[in-house]
Design brief:
Blueprint: H1 3-17, E1 21-32, E2 39-44, E3 47-54, E4 57-61, E5 64-68, E6 72-76, E7 80-86, E8 93-104, E9 127-128, E10 139-142, H2 147-158, H3 160-163, H4 167-184, H5 196-207, H6 215-222, H7 226-237, H8 241-259, H9 264-270, H10 276-287, H11 291-298
Helix pairs in contact: 1-4, 2-4, 5-6, 6-7, 8-10
Length: 301
Amino acid sequence: MDLFHYFWYYLTMKKQNAEKFVPVVVWANNYQFAKNEKITQSCVESRMLLWCKIGRGEVRVNAQRFAMNPGDFMLLPWRRRLEYHPDSKTPFLVAGIHIIPRHARNHPVEFEVAHSRSHRLFEKPWRADALTGTIPSFLAGCMEWNAQLKFLAEYIVACQPQVKHDEELAMVFGKLLCAQLATAVTKSRNGETMPQNLIQIMEYVKGHIIQKISITDMAEIGQCSISTVIRLFRRHFSASPIQWLLQFRISQAAALLGSTQLHVGEIGRRVGIDDPYYFSKLFKRFNGKTAKNYRSRNASI
């Protein structure tokens, strides 16, 4: 074990031993796609940091399409349908790290990922998504903008052979990676924080989630033009302002479903989606299951 490992063991393990749930890295690897090779995974039960190293391709997450070019990264949602579509001329080489955000501290770590509902580790009570703001519900950006995240991610992939035989190291890496992901959302192209107007918009949305918020409202809050709002969200989240807003509303709804007994319709209203039918449709689109099914599988964890 090198000095890096000893340092982080000393700083984190005493606190981690007292925690009931801890984030754990259960798998990390590189994968080079061949031309015309396509992979579909029906229901992946992990949070995954995925990034493109060379080449190009498209990733479809719960039917939403995202182009991936060298340096692009995404933090993928829990229990997702995932499709990889490499470019026919320059198929991408990707790297990925699978994280279980809430792993029971007293349960042995199994270094596997459930990629379908039939997998033996699917829906096990000692493995769950974070119910709080440990890591963002969705994140996309460029590795070059986040130097610390890039270094840590590459290091974890390089250490994977050792991680598979060291539960404590897997927990240390899980904690470090979640901490980096929690701050990566504020990083800009040069490793600096996002523009203040974008931060203002995001903070307003968090504090006024029950309200109807339009792109015009965002422009007024951020004291900038509508075109600037669109450009900022595209640049930092690879999504339109409305897409980001919906993703945020649904992530907050998921947290409420897992931690309260509020009626589904009431949860929709609390995140600013008054129409129960529309809320149910959106929730299933982003999470791959109905709100009621999500609650039945997560509320007891």
